[in-house]
């Protein structure tokens, strides 16, 4: 986990383009947007990955994303959250992207996603289910 002092999000908690703020969460405009209206929602608690974030620090995040989505007026959008470099996380602080997807933009604006279905058998899915269910 990166230290709080070297985390860009932790240093901009009082930054510009602040949209919403609660005791545990901050929402602000992304400074490297992939679409007009691209925002970030972060917990104020410094945690590198979602699994590092205590439950009591998560309560305001989804409501903030819903408020931003509603206020934006965009009918289509993505909510994205990445964990770790192989999963495309660039900043080691939990963050959620609100990314508008204009209906007429095609792949020219917003998030472009591939979905490489793995074609797992029902037996393979059952094995994964059993392993995860046991650990939950």
From TrEMBL:
Name of one Pfam family that matches: HIT
Any one GO molecular function term: catalytic activity
Active site: residue positions: 95 (tele-amp-histidine intermediate)
Alphabetical GO biological process terms: nucleotide metabolic process
Transmembrane segments: none
Residue ranges of domain HIT in the record: 8-110
Motif Histidine triad motif positions after renumbering to this chain: 93-97
Highest taxon of source: Eukaryota
Protein name stated in the entry: HIT-like protein
């Amino acid at each position: 986990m990166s230290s709080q002092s070297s985390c860009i999000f932790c240093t901009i908690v009082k930054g510009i383009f602040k949209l919403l703020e609660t005791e545990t969460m901050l929402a602000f405009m992304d400074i490297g947007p992939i679409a007009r209206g691209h925002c970030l929602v972060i917990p104020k608690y410094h945690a590198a990955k979602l699994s590092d974030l205590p439950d009591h620090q998560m309560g305001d995040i989804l409501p903030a994303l819903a408020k931003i989505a509603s206020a934006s007026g965009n009918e289509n959008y993505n909510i994205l959250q990445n964990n770790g470099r192989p999963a495309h996380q660039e900043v080691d602080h939990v963050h959620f992207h609100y990314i508008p997807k204009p209906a007429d933009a095609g792949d020219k604006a917003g998030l472009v996603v591939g979905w490489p279905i793995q074609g797992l058998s029902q037996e393979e899915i059952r094995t994964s289910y059993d392993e995860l269910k046991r650990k939950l």
